[in-house]
Every structure is written in C-alpha cells, then in structure tokens.
Amino acid sequence: MSLSDSPILAETGAMTRFAGRFLREGLRPRYELPEFLRQCYVIGYQSLPLVGITGFIMGLVLTLQSHPTMAQFGAESWIPTMVSLTIIREMGPIITALIFAGKIGSSIGAELGSMRVTEQIDAMEVSGTNPFKYLVVTRVLATTLMLPLLTILADALALYASYLGINTKGVTTLALFTNNVLSGLTFGDVLPAVLKTFFFGFAIGLIGCYKGYHANKGTEGVGQAANTAVVVSSLVIFLLDLLAVQITGLLGLI
Amino acid sequence: MLPDSRTQPDADAAPGSGPAAEAVVRLEHVAKSFGNNHVLRDFSLLVQPGQNVVVLGKSGSGKSVLVKCIIGLLRPDAGRITVLGHDVASLPHDALDQLRARLGFLFQSNALYDSMTVRENLLFPLRRQWMAHGRSEEETLVQQALDDVGLGDTADKMPAELSGGMRKRIALARTLILRPEIILYDEPTTGLDPVTGREIDHLIRDVQQKYNTAALIISHDMDCVRLTADRVALLAEGRCYAEGTYEQLQQHPDPRVNEFFI
C-alpha cells in the first residue's frame, strides 16, 4: 500500500478540506448570529456545572496529594505557587478540554450524525438553508470561544479549592494565598495556556462536526460518529498541547 | 394508442406531456452512476403545471436518486434538468436556494427536525425564507398549514410524540407552508398502513386541487399510483421504460410493465 492510500492521511486531508470550508463559509454572509448565540448557551453555559466540579476537585486533590511531600521538605509555603503553575499552565487546559471533548464533542458528533442519517440535513438544504453554515460554522465558533472561558472558570475554581485544601492542613488567609499565587505566575505562564485552549476548542468542534456531518451506515454510524469524535479529539488535544509546549519553549516562555 | 415501451421517449414530445415550453420540470437524458452502479442511464420526462406525475419503479431502480437530482442534492453525471425554467446543475448556490424555496420536497423518512416542536419545524423554512412579517402572520400561516393536513392541534407536540401517519402529514405541512409551485414526494406512503396510506394519497390530491401545484411522486405503491397520478412513468433499466395514464399502463402488453398491475 502506497502512502497515498493511507486511510489516516485520507481522513486528515478530508478534515483539512472541511476546516478550509469552515473558513470560507464562516467569512461569507449570511451570518447565523441567533443560532451561534444559542450554541454558545448550549455548549458553554450548560457545561458549567461539569467543568466547575471537575476544576474544583482537580485543585483540591492536587493540593492534598502534594501536601505530605512538600511538608517533608518544609516547603508548604510553596504549595500555592506550585499548584497554580500546574493548574494554569497544564492541568486546567488539558483536563477541561478532555472533559469538554467527552461532553460536547460526542454530543455534536451524535446530533449531526443523527441529523445526517435521518435526512434532516438534506431537509435543511432543500428549505434554502446552508446546513454547513447553520450547523457547522456556529458550533465550531461556539466551541472555539467557549472552551477558553470554561478553562478560566475551571482554573479559578481549582485555585479556590486549593486554598480550601491548604486550610484543611493548616491556616492560610485568602490574601496570603492569592499573593503567593500571583507572585509565582508570569505573563508567559498565562497567555500561552489561554491561547492554546482556543485551538483545543476549535479542534473539538471541528472534529465533532466532521464526524457527524459525514456519518453514514444508519444508527451504527451515529454511534461511531460520537465515539470517534471523542477519541480523535482527545488525541488531537494532546498533540496540540505537545506542539504548544514546543512553541512556548522556542519563544523562551518556559 | 399505447406508448411504445421500448423506445426512449423524447423529452420534447413525451406522450401526454403537451408543449415542452410549458413544462415545470424537464428531464433530458439524465444519467447518474455510483461507481460501477449505473442507476440512471438515459432518463427523460416532462411535468406540466398542475399535473401529478408518478415515477413508478422497483426498489433500488433509482427513483430516489432521480428526485434528489431534481432538487439539486445530487448532481447528474450527464443530461440536463430544468426546473421552472432554470438549469439546476448550472445554478450558483444562492440561486439554487431561491429556486428551492419555490419547490417542496417530502422526504421518505419525513426528515422532521426532532429537536424542534411541530410549530418550530414549520416556522424554520418560513423564517429562513423571510416569508412572514411578524409573529401573528407566522402563527396564521402555521395554523393554516396544519389545518390543511388536518392536524390543527399538534403545534406544540414533538415529532417523537406523533404516529407515522401524523409525522408524514406534518412533513407535508412543512412543505406546504412556503406555497411551493412544485412538490416532490419521495415514497409518500411507504411504511404506512393501507388506511393511513390512502389518507395521504387523498391529501396529495387535495393539495393539488387547492393550490394547483404540480407534483412528481416517487412510488411503488400501486394504490398511491392509482389515486394520485395524472400520468405514470415507469423507471426501469435506468430510463423511462413506459409512460402513460394509469389505465394505459394497466393494459400494457409488455410483461415488465404489466407485472406492476397484477
């Protein structure tokens, strides 16, 4: 089998064309603003509880797990700095993106897949609506913009949980905790971490939409679309994270 | 005189079609293949204003492919499809959308938006085409479309709460709300019990008489063919194998045509 016959390369090429179409269609009117806002509500607002709880537990567990080791070295005062760096640079974006891929990526894949196999997308097209613009562009834009906001929220809750976790082992004021956190963080820690979540969100939305939009084989295809949307999105999140670390390193921000 | 079942009818002089210039749908030598599967080879047909034409054929003969080519969901490999004077294949996307607003398409699976209520399903095409001004006019049009199909009290129900026949009627109401000039029906009675199927057949006739729409109906249900067709075209071997009224084809000597009427 030659390289050009590789199904992975073919899939990557098809997905790249899909992304190109997203850019073309997204820039041209008509702009589906009401549907975009509805998707922001569905994708962003309705993910708040899950992302919030996950962020809270992430911060609490990280603090409680690291406390004994840090105490052994007499470095308990470094816990806020260590936790904040870990959460903001890596854990917050990655864990939130993975949770988001599981909840939103699968839901988009299943919804669009179901619409494809029941001819709802065709029905939309024959009623004079561009289904790509209405279904795909709005969802991809919503995931791209909502994931950074959710990550910031998860980071904030994780840090608050860390403050509570430290107070279960001793006494620290919120002012001191905040001061420790802020003194340990630089612009180069926060900005790349936030920027990469835009790309994570874009990838999750795009892959979910691509898998759903091209679903076939009836109900089996819907399940496959939802499943592969999560699997591929999760893998792409790690690949993008690796790329982000390399770029951040090259720019001297690590 | 019965039409010749072995000769491909010329699109310009299809039997019973009248002057070609008046045709609202004009198919000329349409061909469509999927790999080595040549579904349509050389299909020609005319549909005149206000006329119900049924395309009859066995399962898998390419009837649904044909109707999807007419609406522009599939592009034919060869031939020409003209709808309301426009060559469908050569239309840019925006112009195709404008043309589609003048057509109605009833899907075999109904294709109702299952995340929307019946009212929202009907409002969707209306709002996309800017056909109504204000909520009261929207509500009037929705109610009228639902009354046309005899389901005036279902506006707030979800599609999943409706029976198969009711879903078919709602799909027809969604088609009617834009007042189409031509309606394409893809297997309108498939999957329905005979009584409900007959109700849908009568509804198709009622719509034709009330709104004077032309219709292309894809079916292999002979009750549907008998009750709805002004003309019948038999699709076999990828071409218009025979064409005429129901009665003409019923008496056709060719066994391939006759087997549908036994």
TrEMBL record, chain A:
Q: Which domain of life is it from?
A: Bacteria
Keyword vocabulary terms for this entry: Membrane, Transmembrane, Transmembrane helix
This protein is called ABC transporter permease
- Record-linked InterPro entries: Permease_MalE
**Claim: Membrane is one of the keywords in the record:** yes
User: Is Transmembrane a UniProt keyword of this protein?
Assistant: yes
Instruction: Kindly list the GO molecular function terms attached to this UniProt entry.
Output: phospholipid transporter activity
Write down the species. Hymenobacter amundsenii
| A Pfam family | MlaE
One GO cellular component this record assigns the protein to is: ATP-binding cassette (ABC) transporter complex
Q: Where are the transmembrane segments?
A: 43-64, 140-163, 193-213, 225-247
From TrEMBL, chain B:
The record's listing under InterPro entries reads: AAA+_ATPase, ABC_transporter-like_ATP-bd, ABC_transporter-like_CS, P-loop_NTPase
User: What range(s) does the ABC transporter domain occupy?
Assistant: 25-262
User: What superkingdom does the record give?
Assistant: Bacteria
Q: Does the keyword Cytoplasm apply?
A: no
What sections of the sequence does the record tag as coiled-coil? none
One molecular function GO term is: ATP hydrolysis activity
User: What is this protein called in UniProt?
Assistant: ABC transporter ATP-binding protein
Native species: Hymenobacter amundsenii
